[in-house]
Amino acid sequence: MPSFFARPCSRRVFLWITAAGCGLLVVFLAASNACAASAPIVLTGADRRAATSLDGEWASIVDPYFSGLFSFHHEEKKNGWFVNYKAKPGDPFPTEYDYSKAPKLKVPGDWNTQRESLMFYEGPIWYEKDFSYEPKPHTHIFLHVGAANYRSWFWVNGQKVCEHEGGFTSFNCDITQAVHSGSNFVVAAVDNTRREDNVPTVQTDWWNYGGLTRDLSLIEVPETFIDQYDLHLSRTEDGVIEGWVHVTGAEPGAKAEVQIPDLKASTSADVGADGRAALHFNVKGLERWSPETPRLYKVVIRSGQDSIDELMGFRTVEVRGTEILLNGKPIFLRGVCIHAEAPYRTGRAYSDKDAETLLGWVKELGANFARLAHYPHAETMLRNADRMGVLVWSENPVYWALQFDNPKVLAKAEQQLDEEINTSRNHAAIVLWSMANETPNTPARTQFIGTLASRARSLDPTRLITAALLVRAQGSTKIVDDPLGNALDVIGTNEYIGWYEGHPEKADTTQWQIAYQKPLIMSEFGGDAKAGLHGKEDERWTEEYQANIYRHQLPMLRKIAQLRGMSPWILMDFRSPNRPLAGIQDEFNRKGLISDQGEKKQAFFILQKAYKEKSVGNPE
Ligand code: GCB
Questions:
Q1: Radius of gyration in angstroms for the set of CA atoms belonging to the chain, rounded to a whole number
Q2: Strand 520-524 to strand 511-514: parallel, antiparallel, or no bridges (unpaired)?
Q3: Partner residues linked to 258 by β-bridges
Q4: DSSP H helical segments within 487-593, as ranges?
Q5: C-beta 140 within 6 A of ligand 1
Q6: Which of 24, 133, 312, 527 is in Cβ range 3.0-4.6 Å of 549 for a Cys bridge?
Q7: Is 113 touching ligand 1 by the criterion CB < 6 Å?
């Protein structure tokens, strides 16, 4: 039975006594540093800082019985030292968990698509990587994790540095006390077990890709450093940029400065007791960011020894009646939904190239908008959307039936929402924060998501709040009156006329009744087709059938007076275990306009024509 003696931040000695095979008592001793790990933090613009990459090959140990996480004595829930510990020659016990002999996994990358035996694996996997490092004096060193699905724990040189929950947001662990000059090693445990009280919960319609799915790096900042900032164009004062910079560790009287060299604009303000400097300054000659002219400016943010070179666009977005106004002018969001599925190789998307391919197809479609479903996507998607001029709906993973009456689940959703907004709030591309997708209409649900909507609004009052709602039907009328609509600026609705509901022609006789005088986005519609499978337009799974759905949807959508956008489901086929139909789906949701191998289906061209001719939505 393990027992140990620990002092805070001291060497922890494990004494492990067990009965060996021949009846002898064997005493194992192992040491590791025990130090209270701090909660990870958000660093806005982490990707704009100089960093030491930890990407590449990591040793991996699969742990389906959770032995490393929970030890042999489940009730103790002690993180298993024998897995975060690194074996040394001469250790007085058998080193079964030996990273030097373990097979490798690539980071970034889900584990499922890297090893056949891991395709359906759910549980913890241990990762280890050696790195050499020379910390500079008077700095903080952060381990930056782009995403780890779903729960993760990190140790540096055997010292626990943090743990995190949520598979789609980035976070930063302070490893200053644990890292040293010369050789170091980092161990991570990542567990993608689905649980009832997680966000998302046990059922989704996408692959539960596990692992260190996005970039990992070390970021070194001065002792006093800029952790978060928000700069945006004022909605009310023309030519004014406003916002704030937060500086951790700032002394009273410290200043924060912002410079936009191309506009010859700069400002500075005192950092207050709350660590924030409020900024408000005039800019002349600003070219506003829009899908047609996605102008980005270099923005230098400085405080003391710390500085970040940002690349930002400036625009406003608001709602007036049933209009969405971008830079004060009505806009129609010609869009499409996207999952973070990697084109051509499948698996979780993470690279610049993945983002360029996916958003390149959005542009080719003639679209100006992408709904990034159903969770926050990688930073590179947002950077590329800024650069390419694609407006973005960014969504938190509140999907289907969560435990809406469980306060712990609300806390998890709030944490992920905070991380999403605090990380991504400076992207001109993002215009909508989506709180949820297709949630059941119950009082607990409405309260839960209403709480999230208020939180999002207070974190970021400059963007619009939305959610994709379910609709109900009365005869041939679709009614959008989910009470959650009261909490939203823009109503999103999903419908599958012609696929889950009747034939495509049913759309011809469907009317829409919307209880809210607010802009409406048809946030999903569509149907499956296997690329290259042809037949008559009433034969399901063929490209012709899918094309026919689009042919009937478009005239129906044109009749909805307050429709201000659409994002059919979906740009590209994606893996989902819910889609087993052999020979057709083979564990892929085939509602893509493009296959996972990049083949465009007929429906792509129907939508492209409508978007290019702007024959749906208001002409701009
Ligand atoms: C939906 C969900 C989406 C699914 C899609 C489908 O309503 O929002 O996540 O993948 O339908 O294909 O059924």
A1: 26
A2: unpaired
A3: 267, 301
A4: 543-558
A5: no
A6: 527
A7: no
Gap between the Cα atoms of 327 and 319, Å rounded? 11
Which residues neighbour 320 within 8 Å (Cβ) at sequence distance 6 or greater?
Answer: none
Angle formed by the axes of helices 379-388 and 352-364, to 10°? 40
Cβ(589)–Cβ(576) below 8 Å = yes
Q: Indicate the top mutation candidate among 569, 579, 581 to test ligand 1's pocket, ranked by most ligand atoms within 8 A of CB.
A: 569
Largest CA distance in the chain: 84
Closest CA to 569 of 615, 536, 607, 539: 607
Report in angstroms the alpha-carbon separations of 292 from 45, 231, 372, 389, 434: 25, 22, 20, 7, 24
Residue 290 beta carbon below 6 angstroms from any ligand 1 atom: no
More confident: 115 or 80: 115
Q: Would you say the CB of residue 494 lies under 6 angstroms from ligand 1?
A: yes
Ramachandran category for residue 452: left, alpha or beta (phi over 0 → left; psi -120 to 50 → alpha):
alpha
Q: How far is residue 283's CA from residue 546's CA, in Å, rounded to a whole number?
A: 49
Task: Please report, rounded to a whole number, the percentage of residues in the chain having pLDDT higher than 70.
Answer: 92
Tokens of 324: 């969405």
pLDDT at position 620 over 90: no
The label of the residue with tokens 């009646």 reads: 321
pLDDT at position 34 over 50 = no
Q: pLDDT at position 618, please?
A: 66
User: How much is the pLDDT for 69?
Assistant: 82
pLDDT for 36: 64
Q: State the Cα–Cα distance between residues 382 and 359, nearest whole angstrom.
A: 10
Pairwise CA distance, residues 478 & 472, whole Å: 6
Q: What is the pLDDT of residue 71?
A: 59
pLDDT per residue over 346-387, tens digit each? 999 999 999 999 999 999 999 999 999 999 999 999 999 999
The string of pLDDT tens digits covering residues 394-411 is 999 999 999 999 999 999
The DSSP code for 25 is E
Give the pLDDT mean for 243-267: 96
